C-alpha cells in the first residue's frame, strides 16, 4: 500500500492546528479539499485518524501514532525528491517572522540578492516584536529573541545578547540615580507585557533573580518599551546591542546588576520534513545575520 503524501501533509497540518479551516488557509486550498484529502487517507488506511466536532478536531489514538511517524516519512520523501530536482529553481512562498529592527536593518536590504538568485521564490516577511504562535500563524521560519517556549519549533541558537539597564536624563532629574539594589525600592520600571509582574532581573552571585518593582506603564513591544523609558517613565533592561542607537537618549545605570543575556534562535516549523525552499532561505538568513552576530552577539 502506498500513502498519498499530499494527503499526509494535510493530515499533519490539521492535526497540529486542530482545525481544518486554519490548515486549509495555510496550505492555500479550500477547506473542502483539505477534508477530502484526510478522508482519502483514512480510507487508504482503513481507520479514523481525526475526531471531528463543531468545536475542535483531535487526533485519534491511531492518528497520534501516524502523527509521530509522519515527519520522518515526509522528510525521506523530500530527500528523495531533492536528489532529482537539485538543479531546478526554487519556487513557492516562504513566510518569515523577524523582529522589526532585524528585518529593516539586516534582512530586507539584502533581500534583492536572494530574489535575484531565485526569481521564482516569494518571501513574506512579518516584521513584529510581538511573539505569536508560529505554527498557528503559518510561519515557515522565525527568529526568536528570548526563550523559546513554543512546541514544534526546530532549529538552533545562533548567539545571545548581553543586557544593560537604562533610564532617561529626565527620569534621573526627577528620581535620582539608583546606585544599589536597595535604591530600586524607590524607583519605577517600565513593565513589558510578556513578563508576569513588573520586576528587575539581576545576577545575585549564584543565580539570576527578580526584584519586584512598581510600574506606571505597561507596553507590548520593544519600540514602546524604549519610548516609555525615553519619556522618563522608568528603568528598562534592553540588549546592549541598542547602546549606540540609544547613546544620546538614555543613560546606563547599575552596570554590575544586568539581566541574563537574551538567546537568539533561528527556527522553522517543519519538523524533519523541511522543504528545500525553506532550507535555502534559512541558510541565507544565517549568512545575512552573521554581521549582527559578530558585532552585537556573543556566541553561546
Automatic annotation (TrEMBL):
InterPro entries hit by this protein: LysR-type_TF_proteobact-type (IPR058163), LysR_HTH_N (IPR000847), LysR_subst-bd (IPR005119), WH-like_DNA-bd_sf (IPR036388), WH_DNA-bd_sf (IPR036390)
Gene Ontology terms: biological process: DNA-templated transcription
Superkingdom field: Bacteria
UniProtKB keywords: DNA-binding, Transcription, Transcription regulation
SUPFAM superfamilies assigned: Periplasmic binding protein-like II, Winged helix' DNA-binding domain
Domain HTH lysR-type, chain residue ranges per copy: 3-60
Pfam family, one: HTH_1
Similarity comment: Belongs to the LysR transcriptional regulatory family.
Protein name stated in the entry: LysR family transcriptional regulator
Organism expressing this protein natively: Chondromyces crocatus
Gene behind this protein: lysR
Amino acid at each position: 500500500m502506498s500513502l498519498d503524501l499530499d494527503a499526509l501533509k494535510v493530515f499533519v497540518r490539521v492535526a497540529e492546528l486542530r482545525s481544518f479551516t486554519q490548515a486549509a488557509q495555510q496550505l492555500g486550498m479550500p477547506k473542502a479539499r483539505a477534508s477530502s484529502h484526510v478522508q482519502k487517507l483514512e480510507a487508504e488506511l482503513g481507520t479514523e485518524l481525526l475526531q471531528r466536532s463543531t468545536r475542535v478536531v483531535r487526533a485519534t489514538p491511531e492518528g497520534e501514532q501516524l502523527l509521530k511517524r509522519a515527519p520522518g516519512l515526509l522528510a525521506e520523501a523530500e530527500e528523495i525528491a531533492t536528489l532529482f530536482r537539485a538543479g531546478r529553481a526554487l519556487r513557492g512562498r516562504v513566510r518569515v517572522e523577524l523582529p522589526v529592527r532585524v528585518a529593516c536593518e539586516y534582512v530586507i536590504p539584502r533581500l534583492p540578492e536572494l530574489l535575484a538568485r531565485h526569481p521564482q521564490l516569494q518571501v513574506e516577511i512579518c516584521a513584529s516584536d510581538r511573539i505569536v504562535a508560529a505554527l498557528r500563524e503559518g510561519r515557515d521560519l522565525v527568529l526568536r529573541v528570548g526563550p523559546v517556549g513554543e512546541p514544534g519549533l526546530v532549529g538552533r541558537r545562533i548567539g545571545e545578547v548581553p543586557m544593560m539597564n537604562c533610564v532617561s536624563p529626565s527620569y534621573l532629574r526627577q528620581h535620582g540615580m539608583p546606585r544599589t539594589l536597595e535604591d530600586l525600592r524607590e524607583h519605577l520600571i517600565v513593565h513589558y507585557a510578556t513578563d508576569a509582574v513588573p520586576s528587575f532581573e539581576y545576577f545575585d552571585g549564584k543565580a539570576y533573580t527578580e526584584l519586584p518593582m512598581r510600574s506606571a506603564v505597561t507596553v507590548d513591544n520593544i519600540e514602546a518599551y524604549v519610548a516609555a523609558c525615553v519619556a522618563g517613565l522608568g528603568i528598562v533592561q534592553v540588549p546592549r546591542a541598542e547602546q549606540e542607537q540609544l547613546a544620546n537618549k538614555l543613560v546606563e545605570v547599575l552596570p554590575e546588576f544586568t539581566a541574563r543575556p537574551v538567546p537568539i534562535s533561528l527556527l522553522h516549523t517543519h519538523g524533519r520534513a523541511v522543504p528545500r525552499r525553506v532550507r535555502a532561505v534559512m541558510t541565507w538568513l544565517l549568512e545575512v545575520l552573521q554581521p549582527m552576530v559578530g558585532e552585537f552577539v556573543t556566541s553561546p
